[in-house]
Specification:
Elements (H helix, E strand, L loop, with lengths): L1 H27 L15 H5 L13 H4 L11 E5 L2 E5 L3 H6 L7 H8 L9 E7 L2 E4 L2 E14 L7 E20 L4 E20 L7 H4 L1 E15 L7 E7 L28 E8 L2 E3 L2 E9 L15 E9 L3 E8 L2 E10 L2 E11 L9 E12 L1
Antiparallel strand pairs: 1-4, 1-17, 2-3, 2-17, 3-5, 4-5, 5-6, 6-7, 7-8, 8-9, 9-10, 10-12, 11-12, 12-13, 13-14, 14-15, 15-16, 16-17
Length: about 375
């Protein structure tokens, strides 16, 4: 027994050193790239809190945000429906007029080359994540559609578009050590990805996604860590290794467009995110969360803008029924609200995304998110 305890302590010490090393490297690597950062998954709660989530996630979205967060669940959750819509401020009027056209490539081009919209970023995103989770285990199905498009003032002949359509089945596990103070989680995702990252002609008249998209199926995995000290405010450090070993989409051709027979999406490179968090108790039934996160430790040297990877946020939780959130996503404010009554959730958030080309040419794209969920 003494030998077994010694081995357990040795293992725990190694995990602690690994986490501290990741945290240190994230905090002291402050170089950051001249393009918008795209994540496989971001949710309304996370974006309301400045985009920070890996150290604080405690619901079904842990499957995608940080699988170690499955160890924070206190009960089971079955999410039946949770539609989430996100619209950029430059695209809000177009979306309100005709939602379907906001998801059609040629109609987005027609809108983007309208003289009133030259130089504006048109952003639309929609996703659903029905799932089943219990403490330390869960699975779910993600459907996500996202489009960013623009005809720039610098070159009105070009139509810059990034389109991403992911369908993914994900399953995750968490393992608890030292009475749950250390949580190590892992997920596996099977992804069908349809992708466009191109500069097309702004004079196009019959653009179809099937004609220009890349498509393929891949298998990905993330490994997450949460270490919580047994002190007041529960100081926590966390790290997630995303797309372990890189994710490729060449398992087989995709299911939707037929493009995978000749065109496959580019691989997703492995990356590491790291974060810290505190959880002070404010009142008898009021709790608070503070967190700071640094994204993409492994590729930080490719960046010029040191703010693009920094995310900080807070949350006030009143009786597990009303939540007030805020923070800083990169260099822009964020805010969010949630009302949770019985089996229903209503969540709202707004955040700014950095789409500029560097620290001397910053540019904000303000976005708004709405989510309604039914779960039990």
């Amino acid at each position: 027994m003494a030998k077994q305890n010694s081995l357990i302590k040795k293992h725990v010490r190694k995990v602690q050193l690994f986490a501290l090393g990741l945290l240190a490297s994230s905090l002291f690597t402050l170089q950051v790239n001249a393009q918008e950062h795209y994540e496989f998954y971001t949710g309304v709660r996370q974006l309301g809190m400045g985009g920070a989530g890996i150290a604080v996630v405690n619901d079904e979205t842990a499957l995608l945000t940080n699988p170690a967060g499955l160890g924070k669940l206190r009960d089971y959750f079955v999410t039946v429906a949770d539609p989430e819509i996100e619209v950029g401020s430059d695209n809000s009027a177009f979306f309100a007029t005709d939602q379907q056209k906001s998801f059609t490539l040629q109609e987005v081009l027609n809108q983007a080359r309208n003289p009133d919209n030259i130089g504006k970023r048109l952003h639309t995103k929609a996703q659903v994540f029905p799932s089943f989770v219990v403490p330390n285990f869960g699975f779910g199905f993600l459907g996500k559609y996202e489009m960013d498009a623009e005809v720039t003032e610098a070159n009105t002949a070009n139509f810059d578009v990034r389109y991403n359509n992911d369908f993914a089945f994900v399953a995750g596990f968490n393992f608890r050590f030292w009475d749950g103070r250390i949580k190590v989680g892992v997920n596996t995702r099977v992804i069908n990805r349809v992708n466009i990252t191109s500069t097309l002609s702004a004079a196009s008249t019959d653009l179809k996604i099937n004609d220009v998209a890349e498509e393929g199926i891949g298998i990905a995995s993330d490994v997450g860590l949460i270490v919580t000290a047994p002190w007041d405010w529960l100081p926590t450090i966390s790290a997630v290794v995303r797309d372990v070993g890189n994710t490729t989409y060449d398992l087989r051709a995709g299911l939707l467009t037929g493009a995978g027979d000749s065109r496959r999406p580019a691989p997703t490179e492995q990356s590491i995110d790291a974060a810290v968090a505190l959880f002070p108790i404010v009142g008898k039934r009021t709790r608070m969360t503070w967190t700071a996160e640094y994204r993409g430790v492994l590729t930080a040297a490719d960046e010029e803008d040191s703010m693009k990877r920094i995310h900080t946020g807070f949350e006030l939780n009143f009786r597990d029924a009303f939540f007030l959130r805020g923070g800083m996503n990169q260099r822009y404010w964020t805010a969010g609200l949630e009302l949770a009554i019985a089996n229903y959730q209503l969540q709202l958030a707004s955040y700014g995304e950095e789409i500029g080309t560097g620290p001397s040419a910053t540019r904000e794209d303000r976005r708004y998110i709405f989510k309604f969920a039914y779960r039990f």
